[in-house]
Amino acid sequence: MQVSQLRAALYAALVKVGPQGLTHDVLGDVVADTLGLRMVDFAQAPEAKFGAKKDAERALRAVVEYQLYVDLQRGWRVTMPNLEQTGLLKLAYRDLPELAEDKESWEGPYLLDQISAAQRQELCQILLD
């Protein structure tokens, strides 16, 4: 049930932000906000105020972000494969196309400067995935 709720919130968050997608630095915040949980739904002390309330909200965001990344693990559920494996979610790495094009960044003893930018990008994508 939690996986379904989390995936639904991720989908709603992605629809809300549009085609530019979400970056890792805002993922937990945006998805946690999309869940629309109240303090009584997740906090041991729902009446908390000030710093304690902020700490509880920060903890919720951290747990949501962690669970989103755990959900990306490959092959750990037969009945609910991860979204990337099914093609429903695409992960991209910032600046990877530009880095692959920059021949100067690949100079060295490993001959990576002698292959095409597309091949470098594909190798990096495989390594990072």
Question: Would you give an account of this structure?
Answer:
There is one protein chain. The protein has 129 residues and is an all-alpha fold. α1 (2-17) crosses α2 (27-35) and α2 (27-35) crosses α4. The protein is built from six helices and no strands. It is 53% helix and 0% strand. It is elongated.
Topology at a glance:
Layout: H1 2-17, H2 27-35, H3 39-42, H4 50-70, H5 96-101, H6 117-128
Helix pairs in contact: 1-2, 2-4
User: Helices and strands: which structural class?
Assistant: mainly alpha
Radius of gyration: 19 Å
> What share of the residues does DSSP label as strand, in percent?
under 5%
What is the distance, rounded to the nearest whole angstrom, between the alpha carbons of the first and last residues? 27 Å
Q: In percent, how helical is the residue content?
A: 40-55%
Number of helices: 6
Total DSSP E strands: 0
Shape descriptor reads: elongated
Average pLDDT reading: 87
Task: Outline the biggest β-sheet.
Answer: none
Q: Spell out the helices and strands N to C.
A: HHHHHH
Identify low-pLDDT runs. Answer: none
Provide a short characterization of the protein structure:
The chain is mainly alpha-helical and 129 residues long. The chain is 53% helix and 0% strand.
Index terms:
129 residues, mainly alpha, 6 helices, 53% helix
